[in-house]
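Reopening this one. Same input as before:
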Amino acid sequence: MKHQRLILATRNAGKVTELRAILTEADLDIELVGADAYPDVPDVKETGVTFAENALLKAHALARATGHPAVADDSGLCVDVLGGAPGIFSARWAGRHGDDQANLELLLAQLSDIGDEHRAAHFACAAALALPDGTERVVEGKLEGTLRRAPAGTGGFGYDPILQVEGDTRTCAELTADEKNAISHRGKAFRALAPVIRELLA
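Same output, byte for byte:
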C-alpha cells in the first residue's frame, strides 16, 4: 500500500500526529496530512444533530474538495442526567464557541445539586472516513467516567479537568498525554478506523 494520501479534517497538528501514530502502529503506509495542506478549502459548518453526522459532513466535504480520501471526527461530553447533553454542543455550551472555562463553569453550576451517584458521563467520538466516490464509514469510541464537583489537573483541554476516568481516581486532565491517548474516545475511534482504512484504501 504505497503512499495513498489521506486527509484529516483538522488544523490541529496534535490530532494529525495522533492519527499518524495509530496508522503506523497498524502498519499502514499512508501519507496523512491535515486540512491546512489545502488552505483554500473552507471549514465545514457542523449542522448535523449527531457526532456521526458532523464527522461525515466534514469528511465528505474534504474528500470532494481535494479528490482524496478524508477522515474527520466530532466529539463531545455526554452527561447521563442531562440526557446526553452537552453532546454536539460541548464546544459552545456556554454560548461562545471554544470558551472552555465558561463551558466548564456552566456545566458544573447546572449539576451542582446532583448527587455523586448520578454524575455518570462519557466522552464520545465519531470518526468518519469518506472517499471521493461517496463511500463512507463511521466508527465510534467512548471514554466512560463520572463528573467531579471541581476541576483537577492541568493537562488536556475542554472538560478534561472534571471527568474522572472510570476505574481510576484521576481526571483526564491528570493523566499523562500517553495515558490519555491510550484510553481516549478519539484514540479508540481512530484505532477502530484503522482496519476500515486498510479495507477501503488497500
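So the earlier flakiness isn't reproducible anymore. For the record, The chain is about 30% helix and 25% strand.
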